[in-house]
Amino acid sequence: MNENTVPELVKRKRRGAFAEVLFRLSKSPLAMFGLAIILLLIFCALFAEVISPYSPIKQDLMHMFETPSAEHWLGTDEFGRDILSRLIFGARVSLQVGFIAVGIALVVGGMLGAISGYYSGWLDNSIMRVMDVLLSIPQTLLAIAIVAALGPSLMNLMIAVGISAVPTYARIVRGSVLSIRSMEFIEAARSVGSSDLRIILRHIIPNSMAPIIVQSTLGVASAILNAAGLSFIGLGIQPPNPEWGAMLSGGRQYIRDFPHMTLYPGLAIMFTILALNFLGDGLRDALDPKLKR
Amino acid sequence: MNDEKYIIVKNLKKYFSTKRGKLHAVDDVSFEIKKGETLGLVGESGCGKSTLGRCLIRLLDSTSGEVLLKNKDNDNYVDITKVNAAEMKALRKRVQIVFQDPYSCLNPRLSVWELIAEPLIVNNIYNNSADMRKRIRELMDTVGLAERLENSYPHELDGGRRQRIGIARSLALNPEFIVLDEPVSALDVCIQAQILNLLNTLQKEFKYTYVFISHNLSVVRHVSDRIAVMYLGQIVELCDYQELFKSPLHPYTQALLSAIPLAKVNVKRERIILEGDVPSPIEPPNACRFAGRCRYACDKCRAGAPELKEHTPGHFVACYRAGELEK
Amino acid sequence: MSENKLMLDIKDLTIYYETDAGVVHAVEGLNLQLGRGESLGLVGETGAGKTTTALGVMRLIPNPPGKIKSGQIIFNGENLLDKSEHEMRKIRGEKIAMIFQDPMTSLNPVMTVDKQIAEMIKLHKNVSESEALKLAGDMLELVGIKRERAKDYPHQFSGGMKQRVVIAIALACDPELLIADEPTTALDVTIQAQVLELMKELKTKFSASMILITHDLGVVAEICDKVAIMYAGRVVEYADKESLYLNPIHPYTNGLFRSVPAIDEDVDELPVIPGLMPDPMDLPKGCAFHPRCAIAEAICAQEQPKMCDFGNGHCAACHVMAKRHGL
Questions:
Q1: Which residues pair with C211 in a beta bridge?
Q2: Position with higher pLDDT, A238 vs C319
Q3: What would the pLDDT profile of C60-113 be if each residue is shown by its tens digit?
Q4: Residues of B in contact with A8 (CB under 8 A)
Q5: Looking only at Cα atoms, what is the longest distance across chain C?
Q6: CATH 1.20.810.10 fits A20-56+65-291, yes or no
Q7: How many domains are contained in chain C?
């Protein structure tokens, strides 16, 4: 062939798709800041026992309502428990809720969306109308209803938050599948004899990941917020287990005299949500093929 | 080339339902393809040539009609429009397609290697990876892709190389019949010439039968043995390529040929400028589809559609006035 | 050609795109002249820098990442690169108008076509709304669209009609220079013939100068007087149409002509230019074409060839051909 007899002029940098995204992500300082905070939180959650100075549930009635000091960096609460330790252990719960709830939403919503996008027609119609009904109920209200029916526990909290987010994911995945399905390479895969299952797994899902990854990152944030809200009203994590929302709720009655009890859990929630949002925005830009050159 | 009928298309129709009525994309088309020939299919956008190409290999289910494909080992034919899914999967190895747009017809997440391996994996051709490796190398070599490109991704390659990947994929299963759907339209002239030469060499080596779909008449002339001109879902003229360019019979073909901008100076020729646009293919009236833009149209043309008839041996045309207009 | 007769004189124009992956040398020391009333065909493959040149003249290079590094664009004796954005806005549309490739996306879908033309007129002329609309109707008739259709929206027009509307917008303010970027590439052959016919007609009527950007040597042969062939950001050959078509000098121009299949002769294999366009981030040293050139010599890899006049204003940039002609 002609092409190979000519000395090669075009040398291209080889970079995998994943490395390419990381490279572009690293160009955004906000996204890197978000990523750093998330990694820090994950580290805290994993090694909570090692790094927290006190037990999160052990009461110490000699040191109630202490303001921040060298001994208790962030002070103590109404039972003398160290707030920093409770925050560190709380991170474990919050992250668990965030990731698992989004996981549930993603698997269930993603499957429904993929099926409905790939096999349009009556199946698509029936799935999406059910999703529309669910979408018409406010997410928090739906979660409250589910957790109230199942009873308050960590597992039920995650299920409730997860299910209430299913319709959002179903919609996104469906939209993304619909646009990929009309691409010529799907037809090309069919022309060599690929089965439907293979087309969905090998061609449609990997190409529709970008918007889903972005939505999931942002979704973790809203799941954490949702779970904190449910705990705040007493439907989530039960005392004495540390959870940011429950801590906020517990400190509420002392807010005039001891604002540090609500301030720190509030800040923890705020920074986590902020970090996830920064990361999500950064990922969206990094994954946007229009920015590719 | 022997004159064996390899594919026989009979009264093939493909209608799409739209909100405004039935869209007649391919409307009652009949023709034959000989073994080892290249049949060019030309026409303007929306004339149904791509739809017809897809119906030929059943990437689209046709509304009615037959596409008979000659069996490999005997003289019987199999109707590709009627076989079941399992039989179709077996037939996929014999009929293949190369797509128009080398940018969208390759999954951007798969490497060159994975893209070419896909047809082999899907059809369980090899159960041993060494054989498959050898076959992929061989295919890459056949289409002129350097071995070092095997781990590249489509977006890193230029249009010509991507089209080579598309060609390698369609050759992977050793097909007999390949539909080439505008394989060079998205490419620059220099790359276009490279790909056309490649397709030509491959046909000589492996005795493929091609249907070459294009809107570019000079490209079609270069590759085809016979050419079919389509207008609004129907074949209006079908004959040998030289004959078509020398003595086109259908007024539409005449206008089409005169409209090609030639890369030549000091050549005077009469240009037939067609008035207006192609009419809508939705619920077309029972008349010659071209009558509205034809300068020779008479009452007969507006009263009923002419059939594709053999005017002189091997030269088919669908026009009532074909005989009169020859001079 | 005397200096004052020149309408546009581009000197050493260099435009880079600075991206994460590297610097794209889109236009590299480009020189181009255009006389009053002349029409110039700017021919080249994808990535040769044709559109970037046009956008440079309009000062519409997207920044970032694009940047005009150096050079001058003298239009009617004034350097456009010294103009403020405010002054440029007055020039665009009124003095220099541009027609974009894709008529489907260059019209506003929620505005009737006469309003879109009137908007252009009102921007540059001091007329009332009703006068502008009346002028818009005149423009539509001029490009062959009936006045009754003035109140229609773009989606109610076919591709060819939309391109006519785009042309009407471009000509609405009677510009001195019209830049048409692949105006007929998205159109079918017969519609392309209609639009080319219209452009030829308007060219004489408006006596505007024109730069026609295209990859199709056939289209250039239809309506241009002068031709410039671009390769890797530079003009490699520039001449009168007749001279260039009958007697191409640069080996790239020759290759380009031979790559196009002819409609009146049979060749088994198309002569091709081997290899690919160089990566604009990593242009070869010396003549950018030398790695693909059949007649390249040692000097071609060392030194950038200068434009030489081969007689009667037929210029080309090639060491070897210059030597053969004793220049």
A1: C40, C179
A2: C319
A3: 888 778 888 889 999 988 899 888 888 898 888 888 999 888 777 888 888 899
A4: 146
A5: 67
A6: no
A7: 2
Which range marks the domain in which residue C104 is found? Answer: 96-174
Residues C112 and C89 in one domain: no
- The CATH code of the domain that includes C289 is 3.40.50.300
DSSP, collapsed to helix, strand or coil, labels residue A233 as coil
Q: In what order do the strands lie in the sheet with C22-35?
A: C22-35, C6-19, C66-75, C78-79
Query: Sign of the C-alpha dihedral, residues A223, A226, A230, A231?
Result: positive
Measure the CA–CA gap between A111 and B135, rounded to whole angstroms: 36
Please answer yes or no on whether C20 and A2 come within 8 Å at the CB atom: no
Contact flag B118-A192 (C-beta cutoff 8 Å): yes
Single pTM value for the model: 0.82
pLDDT at C143 over 80: yes
B37-51 residues labelled b (16+ CB within 10 A) or e (exposed): bbbbbbbbebbbbbb
**ipTM of this predicted complex?**
0.84
Would you call C245 and B265 a contact, using CB atoms and an 8 Å cutoff? yes
> Is residue C67 domain-shared with residue C131, that is, in the same domain?
no
Q: Rounded to the nearest 5 degrees, what angle is found at the Cα of A239, between the Cα atoms of A237 and A244?
A: 55
- Provide the pLDDT for residue A6: 30
The whole-angstrom distance between residue B82's C-alpha and the CA centroid of its chain comes to 21
Which three-class secondary structure state does DSSP give residue C195? helix
Long-range contact list for C154-158, CB < 8 A, 24+ apart?
C154/C107, C154/C108, C154/C109, C154/C113, C155/C109, C157/C113, C158/B277, C158/B278, C158/C191
Instruction: Name which of B162, B172, B165, B168 is nearest B120 in CA terms.
Output: B172
Mutate to test the interface with B, among C182, C189, C191, C250 (most CBs of B within 10 A): C189
**What type of residue is C20?**
D
Q: How far apart are CA B215 and CA B42, in angstroms?
A: 5
Kindly state whether A10 is in contact with chain C, defined as any CB-CB distance less than 8 angstroms.
yes
